[in-house]
Structure formats: C-alpha cells, structure tokens
TrEMBL record:
Species of origin: Paenibacillus sp. AN1007
Entry keyword set: Signal
SUPFAM superfamilies, alphabetized: Periplasmic binding protein-like I
Biased composition (Low complexity): 24-37
Protein name per Swiss-Prot or TrEMBL: ABC transporter substrate-binding protein
PANTHER family with a match to the protein in the record: ABC TRANSPORTER, SUBSTRATE-BINDING LIPOPROTEIN, ABC TRANSPORTER, SUBSTRATE-BINDING LIPOPROTEIN-RELATED
Top-level lineage group: Bacteria
Classification via InterPro entries: ABC_transpt-TYRBP-like (IPR007487), Peripla_BP_I (IPR028082)
Signal peptide: 1-19
Region of interest called Disordered, as start-end residue ranges on this chain: 24-43
Amino acid sequence: MKKKFWMSLMMAASMIVAAGCGNNSGSGSESKGSDSTTGGGSAEKSYQIAISQIVEHPSLDATREGFIAALKDAGIEENKNLKIDYNNAQGDSTNNLSIAQKIAGDSKNDLVLGIATPSALALAQQVKDKPLLFAAVTDPLGAKLVSDMDKPGGNVTGASDTNPEAIVQLADFIAKNMPNVKTVGLVINEGEPNAVVMANNAEKALAAHNIKLVKAPVTNTSEVKQATDSLVGKVDAFYITLDNSVVSAVDTIIQTANSNKIPFFSSDRDTVEKGAFATVGFKYYDHGYQVGEMAADILKNGTKPGDMKVTVPDKLDLILNLKAAEAQGITVTDEMKAEVKDQDNNIIK
C-alpha cells in the first residue's frame, strides 16, 4: 500500500513537471505576440503622421512622395499600418496657421512633417510634444527652426534642400558657356525668407563673374507673369530660386522665356523638367526619401529628433533640358553636355 502510494505520488509529480514544461513553451509564444501588439515589435504597430505643405508644385509634391516611399520601404505603409493626415495650405498664411493648430491638437499623431519653410515654421510654433521633421527648407538656421545643424536638440530636425555650392556651380556654367549673359532677371517674393537667402547667394555667385542680378518683386503668385514680362528687354537670362510663390507660376515664366528666346535657369530639377533650360541640383524625390528614412528611424527605433543632424543634398549635378534649350534659342554644345556627370538621367531630351 505504501509502495503504491509512492508510485502514485511520483507519477503525479512527473505530470506536473511535463505540464510545467508545456506552459513555459507556450508562455514564450504569448510573450512574443504580446510584445508585437504593445509596441515591442514594430510589425503590427500602426502609426499616424500629419503633413502640412504650403502649396502644391512639382518639387514639394515630389518631396512628399519620396517621404512616403521611404516609410513604405521601412515597413510603414499607408492604408496598412500608416494613416497620413495630409494638409495643403494652398499658399495662404491663414490656412497655414489653422492647419498647424489642428495638427497640434491631434494627440493621435506619432510624428509631424512640414514641407517648405512656412509650413515647418508654423508647425514648430504649435507642436512641442511630437517629433517634427522638415523638408524643402532652404535655411533652417536663418528661419530659426534649429540652432545647430549637427545637433538640433528639442523635437525638430529634418533636411535642407539647398547646398550653397549649387548656385556657385551654376554661375560658373553660365559664365563659361554663355559669355553674352551679362544680366540675369529674378522674379522674387521677398516675403519668403528662403527666396531672399538664395537670391543673396545668387547675387554673390553671379557678381564673381561680373554678371548683374536684376530683381522683379512680387507679393503673390498672380503677379509673376507681369513681373516676368517687365524683365523682357532688360536681362539676358532668367533665374528663379526655390520661391514657392514663383515656382507655383513657373509655366508663365517658361512661356515668356520661349517666346522671347531668353535662357531660363532654375534652382530645382523639377522646374527644368517642366521647361527651364538648366540647373545644378538633385531630385526632390530623393530629398523627401532622405527625410522619410529619418522618420522611420524615429518611429521604429525611438531615435530622438534632437540627436539627428540636419542633412543637405550631397549629390549635385548639372541638369540640362534639350527641348527647352531649343525653345529658348540655346545651342547646347558637347562641352556643355560633358559637364553633366549622370548623362543618362540628367540630360533631358
């Protein structure tokens, strides 16, 4: 009887141990699954990002598309695990402020993106408790979005869309290949800080070759055509900065340039693709993609915006549009083409 009791006790103990082992295995799976739903694993976590863009034009749109593409490549995809609250101010400062206030009041946002200086500034004034990235901003220091490009601190960082060397290289190209250009006309909204900074840089770069910059000021997009027409007969070429008011009406400048056989230089690739003759630049899609990678790093790895340096474009190249050249009466020489590093992509036929 005693022997029978001990045998029963040993069997019961074995069953408890076996059951315990089974529970351990099961608890590991549950733990992993639990982590993935509480934020420990990113695969099943959903995100919400708010975007504020000052106006629609090709460069800013390409920036947004590149941003979203980088997130998708990082496993954060719209309509799957990402909700995007996209807002466009249509160039209106009142709309811009209202959008920033609305975004600041939405606690569901995991991250906020401002595209172009006015949108980024409005967001920076309103959003203090979420990571805030900026893109298509020419002068983050001058705009006081950050106080240090390498270590911004706070909740704001992003990417500048200008490399000071771009206008220097473009001025060198003009002086070398088009010696008859002695004056360059610039339509500018001096209410846009980024446009003023770039205009000042252009004035210095052109002056180094004894080329004068002649400005035609505007206060909004509707004045661009009249301002452009006012430069005809006074200048040998046109040039525009990343001035949102002007870029939004670039078709009118292209028409005037073509009708009057005036070479048209720009500050961005997208304008060259539309009909300007040349720039030294980069793809805004790539610029946006760079910012999207920063967003993925913040969302998936918890990297602090204040620890992420502000980036600038580092793959500058001369970009030529051959059809625009023909329309503007420019003979594109082999020497001009030879200055293009990536001729397959940056000589537009």
